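Board notes (copied after class):
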Amino acid sequence: MTEGQYDHALPDGYPAEYEADVVLRDGATAHLRPITPADDHLLVAFYARVSEQSKYYRFFAPYPELSDRDVARFTQVDYHQRLALIVTVGDEMIGVGRYEGTGRSTAEVAFLIEDAHQGRGLGQLLLEHLAQAARENGIHRFVAEVLPDNRKMITVFTEAGYKVAREFEDGVIMVEFDIAPTDTSFGVMQAREQRSEALSIARLLTPGSVAVIGASRREGTIGNALLRNLRDGGFPGRLYAVNTDTKADEIEGVPAYPTIREVEDTVDLAVVAVKAEMVADVVLDCAAKGVRGLVVVSSGFAEIGDEGRQRQRYLVGLARSYGMRVIGPNALGLINTAPGVSLNATLSPLMPSKGRVAFFCQSGALGVPILADMVGRGLGLSSFVSAGNRADVSGNDLMQYWYSDEATEVVLLYLESLGNPRKFSRVARRLAGRKPVVALKSGRATQGVPVGQMIRRSQLPPATIEAMFRQSGLIGVDTTGELFDVAQLLAHQPLPKGRRVAIVSNSDALTLLALDTMASCGLEVAGEPRNLRADATPSDFGLALSEVFSDDKVHSVVVIYTPPVQSSGGEIAQVLAAAAADSDKPVVSTFLASRSVPEELRVPDEDGGAARGSIPSFLNPQYAVGALAKATQYAEWRRRSDSRIPDLPDIDTAGGEEFVAEFLQRHPSGADLDEADRQRLLSFYGIPVLPAFPVLSADEAVARAADLGFEVILKATAEQWRMRPDLADIWRHIHDEEDMRAAWAEMTRTFGVAADPGRAQFVVQKMAPPGVPVVISTIEDVSFGPVVTFGLSGVATDLLGDRSYRMPPLTTRDAAEMVREVKAAPLLYGYRGSDPVDISAIEDLLHRVSRLTLDLEEVVRLDLRSVLVSAQGTTVLDTRVRIAPNEKPRQDTPARRLT
């Protein structure tokens, strides 16, 4: 929240960055924030609702009420050595956690949760956020005193993932633990995050009752369409129509009420279709009614400008503060085809059949044709969400839900923007390890942001998103047609076990198309294609298919059947289905140019749809092979060898943090580091840099070269000279004074004399071993956070954009792929007879840079601008580093929060 959202002034030093909307264990939302002196009345009311036993557990003695002195002490904190965070729902405080410093780096931590809200995970959330704040304030260890029978609080500590030490002393358990994040604590937090966020989406997708607010009996209106689609879609739960102007008892056969408050029964989900300026009042009514979630179809929010953006922020903040998630605003709605749910809370009358594919998109305009395409292809759906402006519920939330949804086997994403790319990458990677995720990102080339979506605009090139998809195991596609092609294959066929593909075809022309596509996609032909006659019989197909399915060298099969005359192809289909039935090799077909799963190739499921084992057909072999190539790449990602984040024991993170803090004291607004500071910072992460010494004259250059024992270089420092391929900015192999003076004379003739005589135009540096020059960089992007870049040095590489990108932390596989995927990588492996370089040394350097930028977010730019790699290792010759205050903290912090 900002100060303008409070009815009182915030105290000096109030850390607004500690505020967070959070999801509780039961899927409901709440607001977490630092306490202020003006919260005294909230604290008193909260304490009055807490049971005597909970008070006893907190204070170890009867403590029926707080004195004025207590209230002042508990609400007045310095936000550094003393911090209290409270959790609120609506206008009530339901929990508080605090730490108080007891030493230089130690603090005592304590919690008090209202009894009615115990068991909802508040203690765990408060501990995570307190620990994060404490680390930022120089506190590294928490201690707590807990009564032995206070098992709930002991569990909060022991299940947090930290290494907890316990001692029993004077009838009290003393708990003590370091709060530095560990792999275990990260794992615990992420597992809790997945469960709670998944449950928050389940509350939206599986309501027992739905109210349409803004329902209308007038055909052609949004309210009428929503009500009809819910009713006609077969929703078995209770359905209500709400319209402030109605006096009728029913609308479209559905019980009608003037307000939702007047509905006699409970309401789980509200679908809102009223004017934008009325939505906030509707949210308050829904909160009073105990509604668990909202689908806001209404427009007039961020898509119309500043007024709408403010309205949208208020809507989301208000709904979350009362425990509700929001789909929208400006949303198409949601669908759940699960038996017993049959929920079509969208503006589309099309209700796809039950299936194994889930879909998330943002655009309502695109959502309708997407559903039509799925119905036309006969592609069954498990659930669908079109989130509109994506002000709250996002693709991240849906991926958390689909991770544990047994009805979903394939996930499709149409993304117009990425609100939190770091979390998106983390969540997608986890999901892709279990289920295939096919993603289409629009606006990649333009980096455009759709109207209505309030996100941080990235300055990174489009290749960054493609790299993030590969790193996360996502199957990236370029068109909606390709999206559904890949989905058809993944929903019905197993994953390929390799790249070798056999072709059985009765068309030479279509076989050539398939072969061309395979070559461009990196697939291999398994033997010669089985080219049959145009009038091939079922027996001919049966023999050829039997051969390829029994061949262990074949991993996938492409079948092309085009009848010479009008034919149903029924007998060919029977032969193909029988041959594929007992095989674990995926089969794709171009069967009578059908774009679906033809009836003849369908294995029916219990609902009459296409079960696994059905053979999909594509309009032409190019589409079939393209889908197969995407599935093959994903299968290779799933099979890849164990990948881990390597240990780097020689790194001094604390030293790096102290250096950055000290540097910012000297340069509060940030600055580029000089040579000495760059050397010092990089030394904390085990990155040695060959020293370069600025020189102002030929005599100085000679003296410095002599100190180094000659065998040096003379290098121009100005950036514009470094990028001029027609000018040599480095003079190598300087053996003695004569060489140096000749180099100085030639370099000054080429580059001129410095305008500022006190500023060095050249540096002297020891000669490095010969090698291949590479560049490793990181940048702190406002949207993506830290991103690591790798490429070979040179103007041509820059012009062609031949770079690889990854988001840290880097696994061993990530670093290996970064080096190998650039187009110029052959130069590192002995191109045209040159010596191969030490690839492991490059990977080690990538890991060190990744760790530095992950640990030190104030390092907003780091360039190892010239790194020579040889068979003996790497030599860093030139660097550039900038440190600045991070005004916009990274969006994916260890402590769980909604962003």
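Comment from the instructor: The CA atoms of residues 572 and 801 lie 49 Å apart. The two ends are 13 Å apart (CA to CA).
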